[in-house]
Every structure is written in structure tokens, then in C-alpha cells.
Amino acid sequence: MKKIKLVLTLLLFMIFPYLVNAATFLEASTQRPVVGSDVYVLLSANYGNFNIREIYLRIKYDPAYLEYEQTYWIQGTGDTNTKDGYIYIKKPNNGRIWTSGNQMQFKFKVLKTGVSKVEVDSVDETGNVVNGYYTNGDPIAQSFANVTINAVNPSTSTFISDLGVEGYTMSPTFSRTTYDYRLTVPSNVTKVNIKATKGDANQTITGTGERRLEYGLNRVRVVVSAQDGSSRTYQIMITRTDNRTGDTTLKSLGVSDTSIAYQKDKTTYDAIVGVKVESILITATANDSSATITGTGTKQLNPGLNTFNIKVTSSNGAESTYTINITRSNEDINPTLQSSKLKSLKIDNLALELGTKTNYIYSINKETSSLNLTYETESETATVKVEGNENLKSGFNTVKVIVTEKNDDKTEYTIIVYKHPEDATLITDLQSSITSPVIYETGNKEENIIPSNLLTSLKTNNNYLYYDVVDTYGGLLYQVKLQNNLPSEDLDISFTKKEGNTLSYTTKIPANNEILLYLEGKYKDGSIVRVYSYEKQGKYTLITDGIKVSNGYITFTTNGESNYIVTTNELIKEESTITKFFNEIKIYLIIGIIALIIIFILISKINKKRKIKESNEPLY
């Protein structure tokens, strides 16, 4: 019988030689799927020139490794039944044929790691395995190819191999186990490009690419997700420098053919012009150089009331509106200038610089009791009142020139007057003997060197000397009270302000010399300021805290360093009194605790020995 079957098979191959290539085989979407993921198995067939109308197949899989989810029919339709690791496919003869190519797809969920097979073979209508398909009643000999699936655990790696901001250097330098970074960019940088490199090919990274920056702090999170679903977040704190200001005030405001002048905190202005004034020119400048101003320029006037709005938008978006009401009269009007400003101000025929400046310093000798002031107002209707210009005392005096317009507008000019003490002597020739404190004054030009013979005399007579530096108007900028323990060589005691708006100075003055310093009107009288010294920017030493500003001046003692700064800010974190106390007694507390522990141990041992001795004594 076996021989007969063999002969029939050989005859079949001889009759249909092209059918030798007929095969049904399986392919997997991946042969190394990850546990928990889906894997797709594709059934393909090569039937040569035959068209299959009715077939029955069985797909075998291991339910311990794979969980069947769904079947997708690619060619034709039919029935699918599953049972105990088998999928039975029945394609009836319904007019839909199968041709060579992809026939159907099976979706499995991967349950665990390991090697398993998905197999295919043909069955009859009842599910029994047979060898061949049938088309037009003729059997087709073919082969069946199976697929092996080696399931693996998903990757758990959430570390990346590189992270950065294109064109910039982060702090600290990137390390795969460091998750927080910092970066500061200029104010004109509106966007950056975040780059990251995977540490594992199966990772998913989000948060990279181009990121827009707001002013101030921007938080960028780069999230790395591993294949198993776990994730890790790297964070970059990018600070975009914010050099904007919210100042919407004006520095100046002008309206042609009117007496309108800008006044601080005033936002509405009114004026009347004659009938001949058909247009006006509005000009304005802002205190914020980056602010934008709209509404200025030439404006046409209609008879009656005309209202114009000037809008100031600061660099950070804040806005203020100034309103100008111009009434054009039906008759000619000669405008009267209204102003609370001075046209000129002189002290002893010395003309002071006016404009936006209203604070001055001036020095006088010990014989002068009042300033010789002359002035002229811009407006004919303004009045002037002088306060404090009588019986000027030694040291500092405040003289005020107050200009008031009839509309109650007011401008105050302040003159800080320094009068040399009664016992002070201006040194022009070196005296052979110094018996009292003396003033060494440079006049209008600062001289940095104190002559060595003067220092020698100062040291020999156990005295001290004042050194003054004055400005153009004779006002005291700073004064040094030199002690008598100075070196005898020529001494550079300049105290020079550095460039910029901060009250920062450089000097070569030795330690323990007293400085009287003018703060340029930056802080009001009564303000409390701190003085720090430093040799390196950022490494500050607190000289003194709680100095009160008086007549625009402060006094402090040098510590020998070359740089000083005056500020209201706390540049270094200072220890509280309690913290300082505990730091001072900390070593004693530690020693005391150790001593108590030793005493406790000794007492315990003594008690233990005593109990042992008592327990060994005879009982009576």
C-alpha cells in the first residue's frame, strides 16, 4: 500500500511539475517580540497557477507563551474557531478564491520569555490532519513552513547618553546620573534647540527640539521612556535674562505754543491756545529707553476742545496713558508761561548746572555763615522760598530753594553745604608742629598722594589728619580721617568711584581709617544701608550694618581691602545671634556629652560589680 501511495505521488509530481513549489508558510512581524507586546503572524501561500476555492487549515501555538487575540482575513472570508492552542480556519467554496500571496494574519499577545513555535498544516472539514488541498477535485501536494518566536523581556534602561542645548554649555557638565541642569542665555534669545541621544535603541524621548523662551526662568523637561514603560526625567532650568523695566513714566513732555511741562505723577494736562494756532507739536521721552511712545507728533486743532492721548508702553508690556486737552479759542490769546523751574541759580556768582539736576554739594570756610544765593525763575508768576540758609554750623547743613507756581506745581533744589570745623587748618605749608586736627584739602582737583614728611609729622605728634576731596562746586565728595599709625612713605589715599550706577569704589587706603562718603543722593536721609568690602567679586565681607544716611553721607572704617560697595541688599547670608552662640559653644557641648556618656558607663559598671558582690555574700 505504501508503495502504491509513493508511486501515485511521483506520478502527481510528474504530471504537475510546477506544483513542487506549492507551499504554505508563516512569517512573524518580529521573531524577538517583547513580553507584553503584540506579535503578528502572517499566513502566505504559493499555489503556482492554481486558484483555491475551498480549504481547511489548522494553526498551532503554545498558549503558555502566546495569547490569541484576533484573525484578519486578507483574501476572502470564512470561519475561525480556537481551541486549546489551535486555530481552525474554514474557507468554504463561496465564490471567493485564494491566489498566491498573503492570505490572512493572526494577532497574538506575548505572555512570557522563551522560544515557542507557531505551526500550520492542512485538515479536512472535520479537523483531521490531511496532506493537501483540493481544487476542482484534484489534490495539490505542497509543503508547510512554520515560524519560531523567541520572546524577550522589554528593556528597562532610562538613561540617555547625551543631553544639551545647541550652541550653549549647561552647568553642570552632562552626566547620565545627573538630572538637573542650569543655563542662562541673553535677553535677545527667544528660542533654543534641545538635543538628546538615546542610551538604548528602544527608548522613547520627549521634550527635545525647538523650545520658545519667556523672560526669566524656563523649565524644560526631557522625559526618557524605557521599553517596559518606566521613565526618567532630565530637567534643564533656562534663565532668559530679563533686562526690561516696567517704568512707564515720562522724562519730558512738551506741547508747542503752550506752557505745558511734564510733572511727575501727573497724567492729565490742560491748555488754551488762540484762534491762530491751527496745529501743535507734541513731543515726549520716556525714562525707560526701551519703552515705546505713541500719540506724539503734529496734531491739527479744531475750534473748541481737542483731546490727545499719549500712550507709553514699557519694555515688559506695562502701559500708561497721558491725556492732553487743548482748547482752541475763537480769539487770539497771548499764552503765559507757567513753570516751577529756575532759569538760573548762583552761589557766590558761581552758576550751578540746572536742567534735570536739583541736588548739589558745596563747601565753605569756617568764617562763612550763609550762602550768597541769586536766582531767576522761568515763570513770572512763580515764587521762591529759601530754607536753612542762616547761621550755618560746622559740618553739614541743608539749604533748600523751593520754587512754587500759582497752579501749586513745585520744584525743590537742595544744596548740601559742608562748613569746615572751627579748629581745622587748611595746609598750604608744612608746619613744624601739629597740635590739633588738620585738614589737607585738594581743592577742585583730586591729588592722591599725602607727602611723606606730613605723614612723619603726623605720626610723631600722635595726631590725626582729615583729607578732603571736593567736586566742581567745592562740595565734599569724601573725607578720610587718617590715624597716626600710617607708614612714613607717600600714601595714596584716593577713594575712586567705579563706573556704573552702583555705589562701588576702589582704594588703596590702609585699614582702620575712617571714611566720610557722599552717596550722590541715591538714598534718602534716614535710609539704612550696608557697606561690604571685597577682593574678588562675589566674596564679600560685611564692614558694618545699619548705617543711617544723614545729609546724604555715611561714615565707616576701612578694613584694608581694595574694593567697597554700599547697598541696601544683603550680599552675604549672616548668622543669627543664636546661631553664632551655638557655633561658639559647640565644641564644649560635644565634650560635655562625651563626658556624661563616660560617667554613665562607669556608674553602670560600679553598680553591676556591687550587685555581684552582694549576691555572693552568705545568707544568715
Low-confidence segments, ≥5 residues, pLDDT <50?
1-20
Mean pLDDT: 83
Number of domains: 5
Determine the oligomeric state from the structure. single chain
The number of strands is: 45
Given this structure, which CATH class of the largest domain is correct?
Mainly Beta
How much helicity do the residues have? 10-25%
Largest sheet: 5 strands, mixed
- The rounded Rg comes to 48 Å
Shape: elongated
In CATH, the architecture of the largest domain is Sandwich
CATH topology of the largest domain: Immunoglobulin-like
How many angstroms separate the termini?
115 Å
Structural class, please? mainly beta
Q: Figure out the total of helices.
A: 3
The spatial strand order of the largest sheet comes to 4-7-2-1-11
Percent of residues in β-strands:
35-45%
List keywords for this structure.
single chain; 620 residues; mainly beta; Immunoglobulin-like; 5 domains; 5-stranded mixed beta sheet; 5-stranded antiparallel beta sheet; 45 strands; 10% helix; 44% strand; elongated
Q: Can you describe what's shown?
A:
With 620 residues, this protein is mainly beta. It has 5 domains: 150 residues, Immunoglobulin-like; 79 residues, Immunoglobulin-like; 79 residues, Immunoglobulin-like (Sandwich), CATH 2.60.40; 78 residues, Sandwich (Immunoglobulin-like); 130 residues, Chondroitinase Ac, Chain A, domain 3. The protein is built from 3 helices and 45 strands. The strands form 12 sheets. Strands 4-7-2-1-11 form a 5-stranded mixed beta sheet, with no helix packed on it. The longest helix is centred in the C-terminal third of the chain and has 40 residues. It is elongated, with a radius of gyration of 48 Å. The N terminus is likely disordered.
